[in-house]
Amino acid sequence: MSHPSIVDGWFREINDKSFPGQAFSLRVDKLLYQFKSEFQDILVFHNDVYGNVLVLDGIIQCTEKDEFAYQEMITHIPLYLHSNPKKVLVIGGGDGGVIREVLKHDCVESVTLVEIDETVIQLSKKYLPNMSCGFTNEKLTIKLVDGFQFLKDLRNQDKFDVIITDSSDPEGPAEAFFQRQYFQLLKNALSNDNGIIISQTSENIWLNVNYLQRLTETAREVFTNVKYCSTMVPSYTSGQLGLLVCTMNDQIDLTEPTRFPTTSEQSELRYYNKDIHSASFVLPKWVENDLN
Ligand code: SAM
């Protein structure tokens, strides 16, 4: 087996458009799987430090070592902001990490996963067992369709309290998720003005702050209350990834959780707590005016 992203035994994440002049590299200690699905190029390999690594279209999606930093923040920020989240929608998320975190909230009655590529779900069951552990939960419904189309076809009675967009990056099947029409569809899919959405922004402040500023402005054309927060994930480019949190309720202070993890919920979390919720919205001075 060989793969164009693997040279001399090292996987190299190179993208001259999004991260010019730099590359992130992980040693491939064992190549586990490679396949071109109908939607994307898929690679799974093992690295002795990071564990199993899932790569889509040449971009790292998750590693077993640090995935919790992303999954916990993209899930618990919106869920602890909502006073009583019962119906949750996850768009993308075929690795199962976000589903695992959503199911830690007993108040959630149902969670719908909309994933375009069934191969990712199957691979996660095989190579990322700690992330895919929620796939058999009876609260979960899986729809194997395009997330954009799913939202377009959504009926009025099927709306959600929280919507998490856990997609891959804009170059590929997730391109539509970074545009105004998508934010409009998300707004329409919320059960009421207290609904919360969160989306991964794909870029980070070091490499593409202008893009993040445009994305934040696009979200603000649709939602009245929008904030950017961030999480530290060493295997993502430059180690920092932003999340965009939006609601139509201006009374909600997005930087403060509405509910706090109980002692038993907190014991299952390794990254999120109420302090890191607030701290994640505090940005370095050179970007705070641009984004928040
Ligand atoms: N945590 C990751 C990150 O930020 O890099 C994202 C992980 S998850 C694996 C991303 C998922 O989004 C993939 O499984 C991909 O198949 C799915 N996806 C991409 N475009 C999609 C679309 N249009 N509709 C539904 N799912 C989509």
UniProtKB/TrEMBL annotation:
InterPro entries: PABS (IPR030374), PABS_CS (IPR030373), SAM-dependent_MTases_sf (IPR029063), Spermi_synthase (IPR001045), Spermi_synthase_euk (IPR030668), Spermidine_synt_N (IPR035246), Spermidine_synt_N_sf (IPR037163)
Pfam families given in the database record: Spermine_synt_N (PF17284), Spermine_synth (PF01564)
Active-site residues, as the UniProt record annotates them: 166
GO biological process, one term: spermine biosynthetic process
Residue ranges of domain PABS in the record: 8-248
GO molecular function: spermidine synthase activity; spermine synthase activity
GO terms for cellular component: cytosol
Keywords: Polyamine biosynthesis, Transferase
UniProt xrefs under SUPFAM superfamilies: S-adenosyl-L-methionine-dependent methyltransferases
Keyword set includes Transferase: yes
Entries under PANTHER family matching the protein: SPERMIDINE SYNTHASE (PTHR11558:SF11), SPERMIDINE/SPERMINE SYNTHASE (PTHR11558)
Family to which the UniProt record says this protein belongs: Belongs to the spermidine/spermine synthase family.
Alphabetical list of NCBIfam families matching this protein: PRK00811.1, speE
Record protein name field: PABS domain-containing protein
Native species: Kazachstania africana (strain ATCC 22294 / BCRC 22015 / CBS 2517 / CECT 1963 / NBRC 1671 / NRRL Y-8276) (Yeast)
Taxonomic lineage of the native organism: Eukaryota, Fungi, Dikarya, Ascomycota, Saccharomycotina
